[in-house]
Design brief:
The protein is α/β, with parallel strands linked by helices and 552 residues long. Among the domains are: 10-257, Rossmann fold; 346-462, Ribosomal Protein L25, Chain P (Beta Barrel), CATH 2.40.240. The chain has helices spanning 10-20, 41-56, 75-88, 102-114, 125-130, 149-161, 210-221, 236-245, 269-277, 292-298, 302-312, 323-335; strands at 28-31, 60-65, 94-97, 118-121, 170-173, 188-192, 206-208, 225-229, 253-257, 260-262, 319-321, 340-341, 343-344, 347-352, 360-366, 376-382, 384-388, 408-411, 416-424, 430-438, 455-456, 458-460, 465-472, 496-503, 515-518, 522-526, 536-542. Bound molecules: adenosine-5'-triphosphate and magnesium ion.
């Protein structure tokens, strides 16, 4: 099937101009996650952008773990990130860990000190913040700003040796305390952290800050176009300063694009981690999570995610995208691919009283009426079947065309049945219906004798396979707000509903991650963790209907 065409994007134009102006003759991009959590759909947008831009210009893309913060990082996250990138359909040309550059970064810091461009500062983090000034006021120079090169070299070496406690000293760039750009007011380059690192163990107790590390990582790897989200726009002058003053051979350039936000979704690893740790969800891959692993388990496909990313394109201004748009793309992707079968989520037994007890027959059903290539299957029909509780009404509201006493409906792929009797238990609950069928009305025989208004689905009771259905609603009831309330106050208590029902016998052999359209219920995915041959579990990916339409 054709994938959605790329929408135009300003980054592509920048690269084209760089080529024209002779500023670049090749493209190297990178996806640089910090391994401090599982990736979410926002990261997917960045992955797709970086890999596809490079691909378009026959360039390369690196996967780089930006692992410069020892306390939050873990190899579990490294592994999950690799899996997610590959599942999305991309293979990195090179794999790097920023922590492998610690020695080189340290040497570049020494170079800055020698050039009089960096100094060791004894102010606390709080004091540094207070003396940084504001948009209207310049900052105040640190009392340690004029330390000699010799003293700075000595102190920085002692920092590395572990002579000081966390927070006692930092290394700062010496730029301009009066700069209108606050990021240039002597930013911190190194801090002390006595903590074990997932890759370098206890080798280091000083760690580079993002603003120092990131441009160096890009330059070391020969990245040409370093794409990040908009909040780093004001950091770009510092990025360029670091590359220049550290005398890096390769000169990468930073470009910013709008991050992806979705309605009813929190999109930050920190917050997602909170949902996991407080057991509000049952893991990073809970099907309600906007993580790539959660969406995969829910039943999203890489194609749907790539087409979604292409459609939203790359913007220069932040906005919130409607989650319905993501749902639109999974429906589009599965429409012709997923077999259509019948499942009864909340069963009600129907006895067809004029169908002989010892009889059964096989009826033909199309696997996907919109895609005849998917062929047909045979489904059993006999005296007892299950229908959906909701497809029967004791007191039918106006315009109700499904089953009620005296009414006739079509059973999908089978016969017309008419309801003659309602059986109740002592509490008055309807537990069974007695109906009669009309053999003349068999589906596919061209019967035109009379018409009925309702078509309902069913499964044969004797051959039905029990199954669990997990139905989802948004996990968060509000969009991310700035009203001071925590997202934890907006958790939807009804985000998961579990129903026990039946599927057709052909479903018995379905496997982890198989996807189906259940007639009238929507698209479902076989859950990779909870489903087994003895106990099928289906996650509803999306229902069938949506009010959403792509803008023309
Ligand atoms: P989070 O706050 O969720 O941890 P992050 O930006 O800190 O996100 P990183 O691991 O540093 O996470 O991100 C790796 C890359 O993914 C960066 O280039 C970042 O710009 C990009 N990215 C992160 N979130 C989004 C988003 N919502 N939309 C687009 N790109 C994103
Ligand atoms: Mg981060």
């Amino acid at each position: 099937m054709m994938e959605h065409k790329s929408s135009s994007n300003f980054l592509r134009n920048i690269i084209l101009e760089d080529f024209k102006a002779g500023k670049a003759d090749h493209v190297v991009t990178r996806f640089p996650p910090e391994p401090n959590g599982y990736l979410h759909i926002g990261h997917a947008k960045s992955i797709i952008l970086n890999f596809e831009l490079a691909d378009e210009f026959k360039g390369k893309t690196h996967l780089r773990f930006d692992d410069t913060n020892p306390t939050k990082e873990d190899t579990e996250y490294v592994e999950s990130i690799k899996e997610d990138v590959q599942w999305l359909g991309y293979q990195w040309d090179e794999l790097f860990f920023a922590s492998n550059y610690f020695e080189e970064m340290y040497n570049r810091a020494i170079l800055l000190i020698k050039k009089g461009k960096a100094y060791v500062c004894d102010l606390t983090a709080e004091e540094i913040r207070k003396t940084r000034g504001s948009l209207t006021e310049p900052g105040q120079p640190s009392p340690w700003r004029e330390r000699s090169v010799e003293e700075n070299l000595e102190l920085f070496e002692e920092m590395r040796r572990g002579a000081f406690k966390d927070g006692e000293k930092v290394l700062r760039a010496k730029i301009d305390m009066a700069s209108p750009n606050i990021n240039l007011r002597d930013p911190v380059l190194y801090r002390i952290a006595h903590a074990s690192h997932h890759n370098t163990g206890d080798k280091w107790c000083i760690y580079p800050m993002y603003d120092f590390a990131h441009p160096l990582e890009d330059a070391i790897e020969g990245v040409t176009h370093s794409i990040c989200t908009l909040e780093f726009e004001d950091h770009r002058p510092l990025y360029d300063w670091i590359v220049r003053e550290c005398e890096m051979e390769n000169v990468p350039h930073q470009y910013e694009f709008a991050r992806l936000n979705l309605t009813n979704t929190v999109m930050s690893k920190r917050k997602l981690k909170q949902l996991v740790e407080e057991k509000i969800v049952d893991g990073w891959n809970d099907p309600r999570m906007p993580t790539i692993s959660g969406l995969r388990r829910r039943g999203y496909t890489p194609e749907a995610m790539r087409n979604f990313a292409r459609e939203i394109g790359v913007a220069k201004a932040d906005s919130v995208v409607d989650t319905k748009m993501l749902e639109h793309f999974i429906r589009e992707d599965l429409k012709l691919k997923a077999p259509r079968t019948m499942a009864v989520l909340k069963p009600l037994k129907v006895v067809i009283t004029n169908y002989p007890e010892d009889q059964a027959e096989m009826l033909e059903a199309e696997n996907n009426p919109e895609n005849p290539e998917m062929g047909v299957r045979m489904i059993p029909f006999s005296r007892e079947i299950y229908i959906e509780q909701d497809d029967f009404a004791e007191n039918p509201p106006p315009k109700y065309h499904r089953l009620y006493l005296g009414n006739e409906v079509r059973l999908k792929n089978a016969y017309f049945i008419k309801c003659n009797e309602i059986v109740k238990d002592e509490s008055g609950r309807v537990i069974e219906l007695h109906c009669t069928y009309d053999p003349e009305t068999k589906s596919g025989t061209g019967f035109t004798g009379r018409k009925v208004k309702g078509t309902i689905h069913w499964v044969d009771a004797r051959h039905a396979v029990p199954a669990e259905f997990r139905l989802y609603e948004p996990l968060i009831l509000e969009n991310e707000t700035d009203d001071g309330t925590s997202f934890l106050e907006h958790i939807n208590p009804h985000s998961l509903e579990i129903a026990d029902g039946f599927v057709e016998p052909t479903m018995k052999t379905s496997k982890s991650q198989d996807k189906f359209q259940f007639f009238r219920h929507g698209y479902f995915n076989v859950d990779p963790l909870y489903s087994s041959a003895d106990h099928l579990v289906f996650n509803r990916i999306v229902s069938l209907k949506s009010s959403f339409e792509l803008p023309k």
